[in-house]
Specification:
With 287 residues, this protein is mostly helical. The protein has helices at residues 7-32, 43-97, 104-127, 180-183, 193-246, 250-283, and strands spanning 129-130, 133-134, 159-162, 170-173. The longest helix is centred in the N-terminal third of the chain and has 55 residues, at 43-97.
């Protein structure tokens, strides 16, 4: 008795296995949306995609850091704006007190109101906070709470904001105190026409000084906005790069799926034909 080996059928079965594997892979990519679903799909591509994904997460966290820092700085800016308004109110009272038509009693009333406003300036200097942190009391200033320069002008404390995904991506700045003493208005006296005139000159200088400090804070906010824009641009670029490596090309995978489906059907039909050939050969041995 002879054993006949159907080499054609074996060959077709091998191709059926290949087409079935490729069909499954295309289906998996379409279902997951990823070209790389396991390390064996593309080891180097997976490593590179994971590197970009890690970087994206770091950049997204940096963006959140910058948003928090911006809110911090905006709070300080708004607090300074309130103090500027109070100084302008004090100057109005001082200008009014320079008028020779005012009596001593009128000037004393203005002085009382000014004293209250100066107290409010000091209250704001300690009350303006963000996340429980006092912003304008001199803790982050080149001028101490007493109004004296510390160490010849060195910072009492500095603000450091992390604005990127790298260890060196930092923005350092400081916030000047807005206490009445640092602005030179502590003990302001307008009880006489001459004193009121001198007070107007002093207040003009104080307002100019505070506006300059506020402008510097505004500049920090602008730098933070620029840093956030750059971080977001970098994050989007990294995200797009990761996507190009990891994600499946849906159109291409649909083409692959359809192709392998047709080839699998054709191979299955050919296997039936190959088996039919074997059956025809066996008919020759029947008597």
């Amino acid at each position: 008795m002879a054993t006949l080996t159907n080499l054609g059928a074996f060959s077709v079965q091998r191709y059926i296995g290949i087409h079935n594997q490729l069909l499954t892979r295309a289906l998996e990519r379409l279902a997951s949306g990823y070209r790389i679903n396991r390390a064996s799909d593309d080891p180097s591509g997976l490593a590179l995609a994971d590197k970009f994904r890690t970087q994206v997460r770091a950049l997204q966290q940096a963006s959140q850091n910058i948003t928090l820092a911006t809110n911090f700085i905006q709070t300080a800016f708004d607090g300074m704006t309130e103090s500027v308004g109070i100084l302008q109110d004090i100057r109005d009272l001082a200008i009014e007190s320079t008028n020779g038509a005012l009596s001593t009693s009128d000037r004393q009333k203005n002085q009382t109101e000014i004293n209250t406003l100066i107290t409010e300036i000091d209250r704001l200097a300690t009350a303006v906070r963000f996340n429980g942190i006092k912003l304008l009391n001199g803790a982050f200033s080149s001028i101490g709470p007493t109004g004296a320069l510390i160490g010849g002008g060195s910072f009492v404390g500095s603000l450091v904001f992390h604005v990127g995904a790298y260890s060196g991506a930092k923005l350092s700045t400081f916030l000047s105190t807005t206490s009445a003493k640092s602005l030179g208005v502590n003990g302001l006296d307008i009880t006489s026409q001459l004193k009121a005139s001198n007070a107007v000159l002093l207040l003009n200088s104080s307002i100019s000084r505070l506006l300059s400090r506020r402008a510097r804070v505004g500049g920090v906010e602008r730098r933070l906005e620029t840093a956030k824009n750059m971080v977001d641009i970098e994050a989007n670029a990294h995200l797009a790069t990761e996507s190009s490596i990891r994600d499946a090309d849906v159109a291409a995978e649909i083409v692959n799926f359809t192709r392998e489906q047709i080839l699998l059907q054709a191979s299955t039909a050919m296997l039936a034909q190959a088996n039919l050939v074997s059956q025809n050969v066996l008919q020759l041995f029947r008597f």
